[in-house]
């Protein structure tokens, strides 16, 4: 199964706007209208990735068995969809206390998104969002195995951009894609749906 493709605009990404974007989204405080239906969930096996985080440590999805997590594909030069989605996820995570919850931001542009480049970019977002990169073969495996799409398009002047799947995929503890959250989702609804991944708090003693 493949998911909808988002084609970004052709203007360059301005990383200095990320902190302002977070503040703007927080100030908006939008909530999902009452009675709104959640996006349709899916039920299929998750894909596989063996990639590296910004510290260079290997992250193997096989080792995540028994733990739910989220996956979002994107790239740091994305002008709008990626920073906006990461900002919304960050705001949603403020309402979730689980420190072990992980959302993996998998680059589709490993040639530019090295660990050294991803580290500073991710400083604007919640630390539970973990950026992953790798060689081209490893990225292509991750994209294809999760049923995502990443299409490279040349730009005038010799640059390039990507049209890519923008939905965040939620993988449950059984290794199934249990939900698919659209990039434009509101924070309140996003928090509610991400909360399903969180470990329950231990009950207080007598």
Number of domains: 1
The CATH topology is given as: Glutaredoxin
H/E series = EHEEEEHEHEHEEEEH
**How much helix is in the residues?**
10-25%
Helical stretch tally: 5
User: Number of DSSP strands?
Assistant: 11
Describe the structure.
By secondary structure, this protein is an alpha+beta fold. It has one domain (40-197): Glutaredoxin (3-Layer(aba) Sandwich), CATH 3.40.30. The protein is 24% helix and 22% strand. It has five helices and eleven strands. It has helices at residues 18-28, 81-93, 115-122, 136-145, 187-194, and strands at 5-6, 44-45, 50-52, 58-60, 69-74, 103-107, 129-132, 150-154, 160-165, 168-171, 176-181. Strands 2-11-10-5-6-7 form a six-stranded mixed β-sheet, with helices on both faces. It has a three-stranded antiparallel β-sheet with strand order 1-9-8, with no helix packed on it. Strand 5, helix 2 and strand 6 (103-107) form a beta-alpha-beta unit. The chain is globular and about 50 Å long. The model is unreliable at 1-43 (pLDDT under 50). It comes from Methylorubrum rhodinum. Belongs to the SCO1/2 family.
């Amino acid at each position: 199964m493949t998911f909808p493709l988002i084609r970004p605009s052709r203007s360059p990404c301005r990383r200095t706007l990320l902190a302002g974007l977070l503040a703007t989204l927080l100030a908006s405080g939008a909530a999902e209208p009452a009675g709104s239906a959640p996006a349709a969930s899916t039920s299929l096996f998750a894909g596989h990735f063996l990639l590296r985080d910004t510290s260079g440590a290997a992250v193997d999805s096989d080792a995540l068995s028994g733990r739910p997590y989220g996956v979002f594909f994107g790239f740091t030069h994305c002008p709008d969809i990626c920073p906006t989605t990461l900002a919304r996820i960050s705001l949603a995570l403020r309402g979730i206390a689980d420190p072990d919850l992980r959302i993996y931001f998998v680059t589709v542009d490993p040639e530019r998104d090295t660990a050294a480049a991803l580290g500073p970019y991710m400083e604007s977002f919640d630390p539970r969002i973990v950026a992953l990169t790798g060689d081209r073969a490893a990225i292509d495996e991750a994209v294809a195995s999760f049923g995502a799409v990443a299409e490279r398009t040349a730009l005038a002047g010799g640059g390039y951009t990507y049209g890519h799947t923008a939905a965040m995929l939620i993988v449950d503890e059984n290794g199934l894609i249990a939900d698919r959250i659209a990039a434009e989702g509101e924070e309140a609804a996003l928090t509610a749906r991400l909360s399903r991944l969180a470990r329950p708090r231990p009950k207080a003693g007598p």
